[in-house]
Automatic annotation (TrEMBL):
NCBIfam families: agmatinase (TIGR01230). Pfam families: Arginase. It is an enzyme of class 3 (hydrolase). Its EC number is 3.5.3.11. This is Agmatinase. One of its GO terms (molecular function) is agmatinase activity. Mn(2+) 2 binds at residue 124. InterPro entries: Agmatinase-rel, Ureohydrolase, Ureohydrolase_dom_sf, Ureohydrolase_Mn_BS. GO terms for biological process: putrescine biosynthetic process from arginine, via agmatine.
Length: 313
């Protein structure tokens, strides 16, 4: 197939036209593509402040600002890989289980063509159905989760499918290799003293105070050693960032990652076998001056650039 081309921002200025992720063409068919950006506009599994269902549109809008050559990796994304905006997955705002099944089906179809995915949520619950699809094609995967919360609760109000449970459900279902799961940036007040116990026992849980104390370079080196040659999935909850960088999220926690530290983690994936990624929990109604959508759009650029440089090498 022909190499998909973005809208030329030297011909059509960045504020013009219909917004797609990073101005890539909308191609709702993954055949022949290396990577697709997929919107998952669903927040019915969020427990506190909602609004993440509106994030794919807001992030598409702000991703028009992104230029497509990465200065550190020295790669032009769409020249190294065939990448497109796949559009949005079908969702029902009234049915979590059914929506999760639709997410799994759609992502399975995409991965069945050997295409990788960058999902744009949506609340963090969507990572579980995405991992069901990813594991089907890659086996149990390593996971790097940037987050202020572990999201390993067993249930909330008796419900097993919420945005606080995906990394418990994925473990139970054998979708991930627990020895190769790293949770980065965990912090904040807890309901009970043992809220972090399950994560500490099953995963490499790196609390935010450890990152502040040791520095991100050391932590990224640990991450690369832990993941090794395994297929790895990157799940980026925007609340892993500090609320001063990303206030537009349902459950913000102070003392978090800077935008630069999040970039350091993502750039640490060069040479690793990245098979999928997501950016979740951006809530435009909770945002201030759209800063969180702008940050998310630029982090998507960072993730796409990793896919490109790994292919280009
Ligand atoms: Mn989360």
């Amino acid at each position: 197939m022909e190499q998909p081309r973005p809208v030329d921002s030297m011909v059509y200025p960045r504020h013009s036209g219909i917004a797609t992720f990073m101005r890539y063409p909308h191609i709702p068919d993954a055949r022949g593509l290396d990577v697709v950006l997929v919107g998952v506009p669903f927040d019915t599994s969020a427990g506190y402040r909602v609004g993440a269902r509106l994030a794919p549109r807001a992030i598409r809008h702000h991703s028009s600002q992104v230029r497509l050559h990465h200065p550190v990796h020295d790669v032009t994304i769409h020249e190294a890989i065939r990448i497109a905006d796949y559009g949005d997955v079908r969702t029902s705002p009234f049915d979590i289980a059914r929506t999760y099944d639709w997410i799994t089906e759609e992502f399975e179809r995409i991965h069945s063509f050997g295409c990788k995915t960058i999902a744009v949520g949506g609340d963090h619950g969507i990572t579980y159905p995405i991992l069901r699809a990813v594991a089907k094609h890659h086996g149990p995967v390593a996971v790097v989760q940037i987050d202020s919360h572990t999201d390993t609760h067993d249930a909330q109000f008796g419900s097993k499918l919420t945005h606080a449970t995906p990394f418990r459900r994925a473990h139970e279902a054998g979708l991930i290799d627990p020895k190769k799961v790293m949770q980065l940036g965990i912090r904040g007040s807890l309901f009970y003293p043992d809220d972090l116990k399950w994560s500490k026992e099953h995963y490499r849980m790196v609390p935010m105070h450890e990152i502040h104390r040791r520095g991100m370079d050391e932590v990224v080196a640990d991450m690369r050693a832990l993941i090794g040659a395994a297929p790895v999935y990157l799940s980026l909850d925007i609340d892993g960032l500090d609320p001063s960088c990303a206030p537009g999220t349902g459950v913000p926690e102070i003392g978090g990652l800077s935008t630069w530290q999040a970039m350091q983690v993502i750039q640490g994936f060069v040479g690793l076998r990245l098979v999928g990624a997501d950016v979740v929990e951006v809530s435009p109604p909770c945002d201030a001056n759209d800063i969180t959508s702008i940050v998310a759009a630029q982090l998507l650029f960072e993730i796409a650039a990793v896919f490109a440089v790994n292919k280009a090498r």
